[in-house]
Every structure is written in C-alpha cells, then in structure tokens.
Specification:
By secondary structure, this protein is an all-alpha fold. The protein has a single domain (55-274), classed as MetI-like fold, CATH 1.10.3720. The protein is 72% helix and 0% strand. α1 runs antiparallel to α14, α4 (66-97) crosses α8 and α5 (104-113) packs across α8 (150-163). It is globular, with a radius of gyration of 23 Å. 28% of the residues are buried.
Length: 276
C-alpha cells in the first residue's frame, strides 16, 4: 500500500514539474508585459514586477493599429475554422459512410499521402493561384488555403466511422431525409466533440499563422495580431515591453477559447481511447 502511494506521489510530482515547465513561458510573458525594459533584463531576474507598469499596453495601442489587427485576426481565424470544420466534416462523413463509392479507398489514401508534403513546398504554387485570382491582401487569402486539410478529414472520418452508426443513417433515409440532411442533422450533432477538438486545433493554427500572413498581407490595415507584433522587432532597437504586452494580448483570446471549449476538446481527444 505504501509503495502504491509513493508511486502515485512520485507520478504526480513529475506531472506537476512538467506542467510548471510548460506554464513558465506564459508566466514570464505575463509578468514581462508589466515590466519596463530594464526590469525585463535585470539580473537576477524578477519573478514579479515591482512596480507594476501598464505603460506598455498604452504604447501598443498608441503606436500600432492593434484593435484593427484584432478584428482581422478574429475574422480570419473564425472564417478559416468554420470553413475547415464544414469541409473536413463533410469529407470525413463521405469517406466513412459511403463504402460503395468508386475509388473511395484510393482517394482516401491519396488524401493521407498529402500529409507527407512539406508546407513550404506549396507556398509558391498557392501564392501564384491567389495572385491570379486577385485575392492577395484579402481575408480570403488567409481563409481559403488549407481549409480542407488531410488531418482534419482523417480526424472526422475516424470519429464518424466509430460513433455514427449505420442504423441511424438507414432510419433517416427511410424517413425521406436527403444525404446532406443526414449529414447535417444526424452525423454532425453526434460528432460535436470531434468538431470541438478539431476546431480548437485549427483555431490555434490559424490565429498563429505568421509566415503566410507575412507573405500575402501587404497593407497595415490587413495585418493580423501576430504579424503586427512581429513587425515591432527592429534591427537596432526593439521595444521589448511593447512586444511582451502585444504577445500577451495575442495569447489571451486563445486561452479564453480553450477554457470555454475545454470539456468538448478533451472529450473529442479521448473518446477514441475510451471506446471499447
């Protein structure tokens, strides 16, 4: 009994140590946002700002269009996430529940094979296509690329195949429901945990998409928050207090989104492991 308690205590201690290791960068970002530049780089480091400085936030709002960047990030990340959930869930449903479709398995293998293509390889072709469609420096340039991604289709296909039973679909067809109606009214409500988990992953990826925003967004009025904060870095002088304050403002919406949807996210992540 003592050995079991000791083993559990050791396991919890290791887990707490690992959790502290991952949380520390966010804690350092938080306290640095309320420090002056001298306080940020003082040795030994200060683990609590003294005094607490809020001027960094005022400087960010005064020197940059961060409010506009926040709106841009919300529109882009929200639009990309909704489009990705719609396309990936529809593709996953088709691959899971249409076994008689010609070439289904080969097409699904092709979709999975695209996951092995490095993202950097597709940058130039996608940029050329967007240029010819006159979508560069628009919201669509950030929303459309990568919406129907292979991981999302695979994720939804696996969940729907395991949790949406064929008997429900057959009953809906007998009642005269269309195939899209079955997908929308039967499959999607059951797949809500998987949608929540995938939505959080896509939202984080889209919100933090710096490289692609740097390529396709040209005007300051179109900048996203990560791009705006990144451009605060200078070759000779960097306002680190503003960078830390801006970084905190960029991070807070993602933390809030995760806290709101964490139960569905955890359920969607663990349901496959818990299913007998």
């Amino acid at each position: 009994m003592c050995g079991k308690v000791l083993k559990q205590g050791l396991m919890y201690a290791v887990m707490l140590a690992v959790a502290a290791l991952f949380v520390f960068p966010f804690y350092w970002l938080l306290i640095s946002a309320f420090k002056t530049k001298a306080q940020i780089f003082v040795l030994p480091p200060q683990f609590f700002p003294d005094p607490v400085v809020v001027q960094n936030f005022a400087d960010v709002f005064r020197a940059t269009p961060i409010a506009r960047a926040f709106v841009n990030s919300c529109v882009i990340a929200g639009g990309h996430t909704l489009l990705a959930l719609f396309l990936c869930s529809m593709g996953g449903y088709a691959f899971a529940k249409f076994p008689g479709a010609p070439g289904r398995d080969k097409l699904f293998a092709f979709v999975l094979g695209t996951m092995m293509i490095p993202a950097a390889v597709t940058l130039i072709p996608v940029f050329i296509v967007l240029t010819r469609l006159h979508l560069v420096n628009t919201y669509w340039a950030m929303i459309l690329p990568g919406a129907a991604n292979a991981f999302g289709i695979f994720w939804m296909r696996q969940y729907i195949a395991a949790n949406v039973h064929d008997d429900l679909l057959a009953a809906a067809r007998i009642d005269g429901c269309s195939e899209f109606g079955i997908y929308w009214r039967v499959a999607l409500p059951i797949a809500r945990p998987a949608l929540a988990a995938l939505g959080i992953l896509v939202l984080i990826s889209s919100w933090n998409n710096l490289m692609w925003a740097f390529i396709v967004l040209r005007e300051k009025s179109m900048y996203t928050m990560p791009l705006l904060i990144y451009l605060l870095h200078g070759e000779l002088r960097t306002p680190y207090g503003m960078v830390m304050a801006g970084g905190l403002l960029v991070t807070l919406p993602l933390i809030a989104a995760f806290l709101v949807f964490q139960r569905s996210f955890i359920q969607g992540i663990t349901v496959g492991a818990l299913k007998a």
